[in-house]
User: Fold this.
Amino acid sequence: MKTMKKMMLCVMCVAAVVFCAACGKKDEGGDQLEGSLTDIMAGLYEQADLSEDFRAGMDSFETYELTEDLEVSILGTDEIEYTEGVASIPMISPNAYQCVLLRVEEDKVDTVKQQLKDNADLNKWVCVSAETMLIESRGNVIFFIMGDNDTVYAMNGAFQKY
Assistant:
């Protein structure tokens, strides 16, 4: 009888350890950003610590679904594979700025980031240039932004916290 109790106790301990380990297991997709990229972009603008001047000029901003017609002007190439893309750009602004979110297949994140880096042009605007370009990712979403240092890093901070 004592042997049976010890054996039952051991089985329960092993089950408890397995249960606890399963509950503590990190979700592989835990860093995935859920929702539409348009909603994520709106959330980034909401959360970012942007200057008052920048916020005042946001009335002229439009967020577009990325299409084949816009790829070269926004991404610098039409060779990038993505499943969803949005670009936020001002219609009229004295400053060079664009913010892009791309959803790509998980195994293509590094490739796409390199393609963006290789094809980005900080001088693509007429009479102005972007100070900084930043390309980051969370899960399968790539954040690609060009603009002045303060705005780029404020938006990146919001992306990292989102």
In short: Residues 8-29 have pLDDT under 50 and may be disordered.
